[in-house]
Amino acid sequence: MRKPFIAANWKMNNTVPEAIRFVTALTSDLKAISGVDVVIAPPFTALYSAGVALADTEFYLSSQNLFWEDSGAYTGEISGPFLADVGCRYAIVGHSERRQLFSETDETVNRRLKAALRNNLVPIMCVGETLAEREANQTWDVIRRQLDGGLSGIDLAALADFVIAYEPVWAIGTGKTATSGQAQEVHGLIRRYIADKFGSAVADKTRIIYGGSVKPSNSRELLSNPDIDGALVGGASLDPKQFAAIVRSAH
């Protein structure tokens, strides 16, 4: 049985004081929760402070991105060793906003994934199609290409943990959500892809989560599907009460 996985991606929101207030409120609200991996991904500036606030909890810290080199003349970048140093357990890689706004490619996603693994960070690898691609019936072609490119040279069978997030680009920050059936269909295809490439045992243990306007009103239905193991939450993760409600729906 795969353990549910709920991650808060704050994107470019929350200062250090705001991050500490959020973590304090959330941990107080979810004191009794168990059986769910809860992950917080603050902006880089709040990682250390949020990590300190999470130190005595069962929750985990994640970065929203990382660079593929560990050190060097790369002004403005953040490396895997830096993230491990401040207590990150996870790293989001290949988010659609990184792909769309910052020209990340399947190749650079692959390099970032390898950097995360090299530094003992568990990747949360994002894949997903645009509205135009879905309407052109290209959803699986796009996602398969992203999986092929992103996972090139990576053996999931050799890893203890790896998370894949399906996030239809057309449902991120738009208020639109893939129907429960649409989400389950793609999650099932991803799991079959993993089984074909790495074996059924790896597919059975790999957590595949959904991202795209997840909120308390739809989270329980989404998470009731057999191949949806959790959620990567954007806007609703900025409110500790809403995020706590989503976590409870996975319990």
What topology does this entry show?
Elements (H helix, E strand, L loop, with lengths): L4 E5 L6 H14 L7 E5 L5 H8 L5 E4 L16 H6 L4 E4 L2 H6 L4 H13 L3 E6 L3 H5 L3 H12 L12 E4 L13 H19 L1 H6 L1 E4 L5 H8 L6 E4 L6 H10 L2
Parallel strand pairs: 1-2, 1-8, 2-3, 3-4, 4-5, 5-6, 6-7
TL;DR?
The relative contact order is 0.15.
Model description:
The structure is a single chain. By secondary structure, the chain is of the alpha/beta class. The protein has helices at 16-29, 47-54, 80-85, 96-101, 106-118, 131-135, 139-150, 180-198, 200-205, 216-223, 240-249; strands at 5-9, 37-41, 60-63, 90-93, 122-127, 163-166, 207-210, 230-233. It has one domain: Aldolase class I (TIM Barrel, Alpha-Beta Barrel), CATH 3.20.20.70. The chain is 43% helix and 14% strand. It has an eight-stranded parallel beta sheet with strand order 7-6-5-4-3-2-1-8. α1 crosses α11 (240-249), α7 (139-150) packs across α8 (180-198) and α10 packs parallel to α11 (240-249). The chain starts with a strand and ends with a helix. The model has no long low-confidence stretch (mean pLDDT 95).
Keywords:
single chain, 251 residues, alpha/beta, TIM Barrel, 8-stranded parallel sheet
